[in-house]
């Protein structure tokens, strides 16, 4: 029996999916220009591999899976060239999830907005320095789980590690980051 042909509609991708994919990407890379580039690369890769679309998911889900791959490839590339890229973290924008263990140590009262912005940028810069000092695998796992918010299963599959190994790495990375931040930020 011949396989049923599944059709994609690339002419509608920008109208239907560009905003969603951009929002997905910008949260993970925290850089709107880079997010736009990743979305464009996703559309291009989708066009190139359209013949591989089997219709087992929606068009959007299929494009998101391509975009996830682009984000992972981006971080692999920058992690292989340590210190060549910045990863920005927004401590005060993500509530309970990211960086709580650091936020507890940040002063709660600020004199004015410009001092707060400068202090936040300096904190982010120091944290980037501390992340760059981590062993490469620790930094990669920490960024994927904490900054990019990848699911545990996805990280484990991508890096070929167990879930318990991932959590050991996260714990060790946080311990080393805490020590680095205490030595270079909080005690200055």
TrEMBL record:
<comment type="similarity">
    <text>Belongs to the sigma-70 factor family. ECF subfamily.</text>
</comment>
<dbReference type="InterPro" id="IPR036388">
    <property type="entry name" value="WH-like_DNA-bd_sf"/>
</dbReference>
<keyword id="KW-0238">DNA-binding</keyword>
<dbReference type="InterPro" id="IPR014289">
    <property type="entry name" value="RNA_pol_sigma-24-rel"/>
</dbReference>
<keyword id="KW-0731">Sigma factor</keyword>
<feature type="domain" description="RNA polymerase sigma-70 region 2">
    <location>
        <begin position="14"/>
        <end position="77"/>
    </location>
</feature>
<keyword id="KW-0805">Transcription regulation</keyword>
<keyword id="KW-0804">Transcription</keyword>
<dbReference type="InterPro" id="IPR014284">
    <property type="entry name" value="RNA_pol_sigma-70_dom"/>
</dbReference>
<dbReference type="InterPro" id="IPR013324">
    <property type="entry name" value="RNA_pol_sigma_r3/r4-like"/>
</dbReference>
<dbReference type="InterPro" id="IPR007627">
    <property type="entry name" value="RNA_pol_sigma70_r2"/>
</dbReference>
<feature type="domain" description="RNA polymerase sigma factor 70 region 4 type 2">
    <location>
        <begin position="126"/>
        <end position="177"/>
    </location>
</feature>
<dbReference type="InterPro" id="IPR013325">
    <property type="entry name" value="RNA_pol_sigma_r2"/>
</dbReference>
<protein>
    <submittedName>
        <fullName>Sigma-70 family RNA polymerase sigma factor</fullName>
    </submittedName>
</protein>
<dbReference type="InterPro" id="IPR013249">
    <property type="entry name" value="RNA_pol_sigma70_r4_t2"/>
</dbReference>
<dbReference type="Pfam" id="PF04542">
    <property type="entry name" value="Sigma70_r2"/>
</dbReference>
<dbReference type="Pfam" id="PF08281">
    <property type="entry name" value="Sigma70_r4_2"/>
</dbReference>
<dbReference type="InterPro" id="IPR039425">
    <property type="entry name" value="RNA_pol_sigma-70-like"/>
</dbReference>
């Amino acid at each position: 029996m011949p396989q049923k042909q599944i059709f994609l509609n690339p002419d509608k991708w920008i109208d239907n999916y560009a905003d969603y994919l951009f929002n997905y990407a910008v949260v993970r890379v925290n850089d709107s220009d880079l997010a736009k580039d990743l979305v464009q690369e996703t559309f291009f890769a989708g066009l190139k591999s359209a013949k591989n679309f089997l219709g087992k998911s929606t068009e959007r889900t299929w494009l998101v899976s391509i975009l996830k791959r682009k984000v992972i490839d981006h971080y692999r590339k920058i992690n292989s060239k340590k210190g060549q890229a910045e990863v920005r973290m927004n401590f005060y924008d993500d509530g309970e999830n990211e960086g709580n263990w650091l936020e507890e140590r940040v002063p709660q009262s600020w004199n004015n907005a410009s001092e707060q912005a400068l202090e936040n940028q300096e904190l982010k810069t120091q944290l980037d320095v501390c992340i760059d000092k981590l062993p490469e695998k620790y930094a990669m796992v920490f960024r994927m789980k904490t900054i990019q918010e990848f699911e545990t299963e996805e990280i484990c599959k991508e890096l070929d590690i167990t879930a318990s190994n991932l959590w050991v790495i996260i714990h060790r990375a946080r311990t080393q980051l805490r020590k680095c931040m205490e030595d270079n930020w909080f005690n200055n």
